[in-house]
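anyone seen this seq b4? input:
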Amino acid sequence: MNVKALIRTVNHILKLHDIFPENSRILVACSGGPDSMALLHLLQDIATHRHTAYELGVAIVDHCIRSESKDEVLWLRNQVERLGLPFYTATVDVPKLSEEQKLSEETIGRQVRYQWLTDIAQSEGYDYIAVAHHKDD
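predicted toks r here
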């Protein structure tokens, strides 16, 4: 499937199932990885070129697990600024919380991320939170 066909297919499915109706404000959870960047670009392309009035914002949580995470946040901020979209970021010491709460980093990271995304969506007036996951997530 080429990119144009993918965009048409996603747009058709969104409209068919009334996912993200016209004028929706969508907060895109974005790690900067290929899945979330594809989601961001798909939604932006649909909003821009398919005459679907979406307002997008981009959010990332730095979990402080990997040394390169700060650089990844900066890289994503630059990408989002070029797209002209609102950008939200938070830094949470997930390893420390994981140790304190005796839960896995994955569990704590997920809890922190979804709570923060929900808080940002509510405080900034987003109707939806979009996340990109693949079958191994």
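The helical segments are 3-16, 34-49, 69-83, 94-101, 105-124. The chain has a mean pLDDT of 91. kinda curious what u guys think
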